[in-house]
Amino acid sequence: MHVRDLTQYLAELAENNNRAWFVMNKPRYDILRAEFLELVVRLIAQVSKFDPAIAGCNPKKALFRINRDMRFSHDKSPYKSYFSASITASGLKKPSQGGGPAYYFHIDASGTLLIASGEYMPPADRLRAIRQQVVADANGFGKLLKNKKLVETYGDLQTEGQLKRPPKGFDADSPHIEYIKMKNFIVWNEQSVKKMLSDALEKELVSGFKDAYPLVSWLRQIKTPIAE
């Protein structure tokens, strides 16, 4: 896809976030959206070589809408200033829908590429199952945290929203207690795409997702109890 055209469009959209401007520039949006979809199609094909579970992911459903959900937000801007997609084995993007671990990325108006993998804000029953698995598979989780490629590319798991105290049902001396306090089990990094060509972008995404595969694989083995 034409990365420069996308970032230019998003920058203009950020400055003119209204329906009139969006409608007037709809032809540009349609072209860029189609190119972004083609990128996701290629990513699914490439990532499925090391993670066959996502081979059946529907690329159209992997894309997020550009329209913002303004119902509970003070910001009434109607459109997002980024293009984003989430590739999962289930084909479901949202954690609340039981999407499971995902390969996520977005490109925003500032020309920043965010590459992320894992589970962001999973629902309560799923989060509890992950925390329990951290205790049950303390050795395996410890090895995951030391995975060379994962650490080199992402560093540690993100601590956003981490609890100050152990969650209910977990002792302070539980294995990996600082990770049990987390509300997300995700890694991410950011970089500029302003001088990046399409082939380089695709290569960077595939490489980043491959380095995060150990985390995705570990999370995927966890079964969430079915509510009675």
UniProtKB/TrEMBL annotation:
It comes from the Bacteria. InterPro entries: CHP02453, UCP028451. Pfam families: DUF2461. This is TIGR02453 family domain protein. It comes from Collimonas fungivorans.
